[in-house]
Amino acid sequence: MEEVEEIEALKNLSHGGFFEPNESVLLDVDEDYFGCESVAESQLMNHQIPWNLIRKIDEYLALLICPKSASQEIQADRIFANIILFLVQNCDFSNGKHSTKYSKQCHTTSFLDKLSKSTVKKFEKKRLLCKSKYIKAKTSFRNILKTILKLTKSQVKALIDVGFCMRTSPRTMTFNEMPFFQVCHGSNIPNESMVIFHSSTQKELDDRMHRLDKILSHPGCPKSKLTTVCRSSRDGYTPRGQFKQIEKRLVKLLRTTGAVDKKSAVVYDEQLLGGPRGWPGRHLAILNKIK
To answer: Which of 11, 20, 95, 186 is deepest in the core (most CB within 10 A)?
Structure first.
């Protein structure tokens, strides 16, 4: 496999010989080509959410929730978002110092047990609980709720926005070996990633789109027999705040350059995180209720 920088690729195309005559080409574009961020840092730690609290929630979720598809994943995420909204509406999240400012009922055993029990029923009804861990489900949910009650209102909103998802897609070959459900922070997490992050400015995004346009529309670049696009949202690489712009412009660019037929339909994998609309923005209605 050969790696070629954009400018060098254009030079090689102009000089000829970069591709063999009538060579078949498969084009795969990863959206993190336009930028790479850590969800853990940009959306969670920027709100001063202690990473050890996220880790605790991850540990409980991995043992409790076992969705088998993207549709079940969305159901689980929606249930959690509504449970957290219920906490916000019934408890005092004014400053995060739960020992003095929270509503007293939120920390009573009876309140947490009742909410944990109803939570278990919601997940059980949707068949989202891991069967082998059902007996411990109520206790674990209570621990998750107690952890969430340590957050401030702005931190809770950030947690809902980031959401809860499977670590890997059901399409992954190793999915059955590690179908972990967790806070949807992806793989770029503190002290465990060597990835170089870069949040692109609008100009940088525009420039990179322009360079890709020049490469794909160059007469020396053969037309692809098959074109695929990787969203890289589940693993937390593509900047979530820019993904919609990136994807919309990229699909348009692929059509205008002839990389894909202008009349061909865009096919979205049914196990894609968030479906065709994507993951960001799915809980705007819930977030707008948290003032």
So the answer is: 186
Strand partners, 26: 226
Overall pTM > 0.85: yes
- 3-class DSSP assignment, residue 129: strand
- In one-letter notation, the amino acid at residue 192 is E
The answer to whether the CB of 61 falls within 8 A of the CB of 164 is yes
Question: 43, 158 in Cβ contact below 8 A?
Answer: yes
The answer to whether 142 and 112 are in contact (CB under 8 A) is yes
The values of phi and psi at residue 220, to 5°, are -85, -5
Q: How many of the other CB atoms lie within 10 Å of CB of 34?
A: 24
Residue 55 CB neighbours (<10 A) = 13
Angstrom distance (rounded) from CA 246 to CA 218: 21
242 pLDDT higher than 70: yes
Strands 181-183 and 164-166: antiparallel
